[in-house]
From TrEMBL:
GO terms for molecular function: DNA binding; DNA-binding transcription factor activity; zinc ion binding. The keyword Transcription applies. It comes from Marinomonas pollencensis. SUPFAM superfamilies: Putative DNA-binding domain. Keywords: DNA-binding, Transcription, Transcription regulation. One of its GO terms (biological process) is DNA-templated transcription. InterPro entries: DNA-bd_dom_put_sf, MerR-type_HTH_dom, MerR_fam, Tscrpt_reg_MerR_DNA-bd, ZntR. This is MerR family Zn(II)-responsive transcriptional regulator of zntA. SMART domains: HTH_MERR. Residues 1-70 form the HTH merR-type domain. Pfam families: MerR, MerR-DNA-bind.
Length: 147
């Protein structure tokens, strides 16, 4: 059995992290000591490891909760169930990358159009572009949502 501090330090996280995961239903101490300390088992340690690895690849708490529910009941779930969660996350990441790429191109255009001189900002091409043509600076998918 591990106390909360022991388990947290073995993964180099804070006690509050474990409490946070507990609050969100991802990790539950298997036992409590007579004095009320949270006590975790090897299985709890494996679950925490799973949670932390899932966080590193970008899964949200909701995603992790869903993956854990599949993990706990593997025999009654299909590999396809896991793939659905992963593919949804992949699609979300691809959308974010496309959006960031658009932001990058827009910012690059703004930066390239500006002389960056010490003159008055009254003639700044960046400010002019932001004032006059804000629609060209929006990510592509925002236009789709408006149609």
């Amino acid at each position: 059995m591990y106390r909360i501090g022991e388990l947290a330090s073995s993964f180099k996280v804070k006690n509050d992290t474990l409490r946070f995961y507990e609050k969100h239903g991802l990790l539950t101490p298997s036992h409590r000591s007579e004095s009320g300390y949270r006590l975790y088992t090897e299985q709890d340690k494996k679950i925490l490891s799973f949670i932390l690895r899932a966080k590193t690849v970008g899964f949200s708490l909701a995603d992790i909760h869903e993956l854990l529910s599949i993990e706990v009941d593997k025999d009654n779930n299909a590999c396809a169930d896991v793939k659905i969660v992963v593919d949804a996350k992949l699609e979300e990441v691809e959308r974010k990358i496309a959006e960031l790429s658009h932001f990058q191109k827009s910012l690059k255009q703004l930066s390239d159009a500006c002389c960056g001189g010490s003159g008055s900002a009254a003639q700044c091409t960046i400010l002019e572009a932001l004032e006059s043509d804000i629609n060209n600076l929006r990510p592509e998918h925002h236009h789709d949502e408006q149609e």
